Amino acid sequence: KIPIDYVKGVEYYTVISLPYSGTYTYRFAAKDRNGVLALGTPTQEYIGPILTGVDAPVAPLLLWTGERNYLYDGLDPEQGEPNSTIFTYRVKYSDGNNEAPLAGYPRVKIKTTGGTETILSLTRVSPATVTYAAGVLYETRTTLPVPTGVYTYQFEAKDITGLTARGAGTQVKIAPAVNSAPVLSNGTVNPTNGNVSTLYTFSVRYQDSEGYVPYPGYPKVHILIGGVDIPGSPIILPYHDGGNISSGRVYSNPITLSYNNSNYSYYFEAMDIYRKMATPTSTYYGPVVTGGGNCGPELLWVGTGGYVSDGLEPEIGTRGTIFTFKVRYRDLNNDQPKPGYPQVHIKTNEGTYTSLKMNFEEGVVSCGVYMATTTLSRITNYTYYIEAFEDNPENNSIRLPLKVEMKGPRVTNAPILTWTGESGFESDGVNPDYGTVNSSSFTYKVRYYDTDGNLPKYVHLWIYKDGKRIFGSPFPMGFVPTSGNLADGDYYANISFTESGTYSYLIEAKEKLGINLNPLEIGSESPSAKTATLEAIGDPSLVGEFSPSQVDIFGDLGEDELIMVIWADGVSAVGPATLEMVGPIVKTEQQQNREIKLPPPTPQIQITDLQSVYCYPNPTKKGEITFANLPQNRLIKIRIFNIVGELVYEEEREANSGGKIIWTCRNSANERVASGIYIYILTDRIGNMKRGKLGIIR
């Protein structure tokens, strides 16, 4: 093996041939294994090579644009109403000889089911700077009239030499479906009262003005208790009677209902043969069903928002995060839960950590959503399950999930973003503060620190001008190799500006949490990537759901030692660098030349409140933190709390002549405080207050 040293640098190259005359441009791009974009001058665009000679004539291409909704075709939307929906036809014209299309091209041929053809020319939408060799976007927009049905379309083009275009865009595509939605009306159930042996007939009228029959499996009736479909719902309604489709037909189905309950409701839905959905009917209430035995309660996931497949939101947070647990309790016999239930039991590896009563939130008490909220103080991985009892003599119970616990939440320390403290970056993240359009390069820097050692998923720089995000923002920030490590180091970006004005910026970061699924040691050699099929063991319901942002597999090919790490999203960073800052101020050369080059006077600003106070270094490894920009000749009370809210340090004193107070990272008993995140609150005697977070590293 040849050792590869990425610190010293590794060269890469490729060899290609270029078939067309003209001036080319190029640039390089790369990402490291953590997904961080490479920086440096090769990432800029350069001109070259310039090729001359006579090119062989090449036919143009019509291609899909690759944009959202135009990945595999050239139409959006795919379905609509006659004479009202605006359909957009869009295609990319590319010519290797950089030749323009012939007048009247590109164009699109649209045919109806009856064979009527309409031809529409497309209009260029790409900027004039985009060459035909690179590919130019064209589009046209139109409504489609009756006759309704399924249309087809096909793009055509010729270049100025008369060569006919080829490519994916020249295929005949079937779309759009143009028709009006069917209408549902007269939804009923008969009878409206009965017992578990009664036949209840649900019926609805289906009408389609264009005469299209329902799609197979429709119309349907949804029968609900407590807002949730009962087992077996929705139920298909077969044709019953009535005239033709355009004047309306009745569809119905007689069924029995197995649960004695007074909280039934129902609604109907349908779509036509071209899958045009009718507007679902409003919700009807009934019937009232009596008789039958006790069936016991159910616990279900709520099914909306962040509670589709579990009962927790969010799944990852910090000690201060409010975790919300939700569940749907349903008793088909209308029995409400036993007092004090449902309960959510939250566990750590050592056992049950806490149990919380869940309170009724919405619906009805026998068929509704219950909720509990809490914060969790221990930095660890939790699991949970929910249980309930019905309030009747049989006292039936239910648990969700049935035998295991759900994974979550994961409580971690939030990463911290602070200024680096270097020259030019003591109290902000950009240097220089002033510069010139196109010629000045502005360096942005920030310090990322995570007490748990979690790497950043990203560190992003957002830049604004006049309150609007500039083009390209957010910009990825690269790691400074000499500043430490990825979990405790500096990140930077170099930016130049093409417009003058006053800019502002903020920096955001999010940690990524590594879930090591097979914690075997990695050898000293660089890990090599491989494709592997992993077979899970154990109860799959224990794993829960996650959305991994990256999966890494390490190990040497041919060896049994293998480690797989799933990178899941963590929490967002906090700290002073996450606040929006003003700067830099960028001027044109003419503006710079017009200014009188005199040194600016020293500003004499009287600080009257505490809002401009900041502390540094943050986090600190030096055993002290300086609070700066404090008003002078005024008593300032400093209170430091740990992350669980316990008072660690308290003192009242005046700032020195430089507007600073130094805290030596000791508690009120003059003992060194432990590493971690702390909350500081500064107050004066006239009602001003400043609150923030600081980090201490031992």
Oligomer type: single chain
**Mean of all residue-level pLDDT scores:** 83
Q: What gross morphology would you assign?
A: flat
Q: In terms of per-residue confidence, which ranges show pLDDT below 50 for 5 or more consecutive residues? A: 515-566, 600-605
Measured between the Cα atoms of the first and last residue, the distance is 40 Å
Number of helices: 1
Count of β-strands: 54
Report the C-alpha radius of gyration, rounded: 34 Å
Largest sheet: 8 strands, mixed
Structural class: mainly beta
Strand content: 35-45%
Q: Helicity, in percent? A: under 10%
Explain the layout of strands and helices.
Elements: E1 22-26, E2 46-51, E3 61-63, E4 75-76, E5 79-80, E6 87-94, E7 107-111, E8 117-121, E9 123-124, E10 136-142, E11 149-156, E12 173-178, E13 183-190, E14 193-195, E15 200-207, E16 220-225, E17 228-229, E18 235-236, E19 239-242, E20 249-255, E21 264-269, E22 284-285, E23 288-290, E24 297-300, E25 312-313, E26 316-317, E27 323-331, E28 343-348, E29 351-357, E30 359-364, E31 367-374, E32 381-389, E33 397-400, E34 406-411, E35 416-418, E36 430-431, E37 434-436, E38 442-449, E39 456-465, E40 468-469, E41 475-476, E42 478-479, E43 488-495, E44 501-516, E45 550-554, E46 563-572, E47 581-587, H1 589-594, E48 614-616, E49 625-628, E50 635-642, E51 647-654, E52 661-663, E53 676-683, E54 689-696
Parallel strand pairs: 5-12, 14-23, 26-34, 37-47
Antiparallel strand pairs: 1-2, 3-6, 4-6, 6-10, 7-8, 7-11, 9-10, 11-12, 13-15, 15-20, 16-17, 16-18, 16-21, 19-20, 21-22, 24-27, 25-27, 27-31, 28-29, 28-32, 30-31, 32-33, 32-34, 35-38, 36-38, 38-43, 39-40, 39-41, 39-44, 42-43, 44-46, 44-47, 45-46, 48-49, 49-52, 50-51, 50-53, 53-54
